[in-house]
Design brief:
By secondary structure, the chain is α+β, with helices and mostly antiparallel strands. The chain contains eight helices and ten strands.
Length: 228
């Protein structure tokens, strides 16, 4: 190889290295267009159920502006002692063993959604069923309307190899799960890729979470009796 050929080859590898190091386009605030860090906050536009990527300043400025926008919180709570029987779950009429629930303040009701290859699908939810679940799991009274959801994962439980998982978490994480399934689902069973992505999603959620012991109505009554 001649010196000229070597120099040209080296220049080519240099160009490849520069291309590999090139950063992805910077995500920008949908309110003010400033560049965003990867863990930026979100606002939700209530009327359209639309999530907006924002900077910290705009998240503070626009949250609480009437009822148009709300800031999505960051906390993730793991609820290992959550009280939900198989019969109650079956009564919710969710066709798969995963769903999330949130309070819609504009419609004044609790909405149940489950992820599917086509996106988020709503399942009818009787108010009485939800009230019964809240009565035994008072922490659900702390779930902030519109911006937090109860995520239920009973996939492993239904197959007998893990416990059911319950999380109170930001609504953007719920929709992230929906997008993940929609993006990676293949064929009738989903394919190995989507199940791998699901496993990694719940591993990340669990790592972020703070474990909370859910006080049941029965436990609360027993405590009151012991102090009587």
């Amino acid at each position: 190889m001649s010196a000229g050929q070597f120099t040209g080859s080296a220049d080519g590898f240099g160009a490849l290295r520069q291309f590999a190091r090139r950063e992805r386009p910077l995500e920008r605030c949908e309110m003010c267009s400033v560049g965003l860090r990867p863990d930026h906050p979100h606002l939700i536009e209530l009327a359209q159920r639309k999530l907006l990527c924002t900077c910290d300043a705009c998240a503070i400025l626009f949250s609480g502006q009437g009822v148009k926008f709300k800031r999505v919180p960051r906390r993730v709570l793991s609820l290992p002692a959550f009280n939900l029987s198989d019969a109650e779950w079956n009564g919710l009429m969710v066709p798969i063993n995963m769903a999330f629930f949130f309070r819609n303040s504009l419609e004044n009701r609790v909405i149940a959604l489950y992820p599917s290859p086509a996106g988020a699908t709503e399942s009818l939810l009787a108010l009485e069923s939800w009230n019964d679940i809240v009565a035994r799991n008072p922490i659900l009274n702390e779930m902030e309307s519109d911006v937090e959801g109860l995520l239920v994962n009973r996939l492993g439980y239904s197959r007998g190899y893990s416990a059911a998982e319950y999380y109170l978490l930001p609504i953007d994480e719920c929709y992230k799960l929906v997008g993940l399934i929609r993006l990676h689902w293949k064929g009738l069973s989903g394919g190995t890729e989507v199940w791998k992505e699901l496993g990694e999603f719940f591993t990340r959620v669990k790592a972020r979470s703070v474990e909370v012991a859910v006080e049941t109505k029965e436990a609360s009554n027993m405590g009151e009796e012991s102090h009587a």
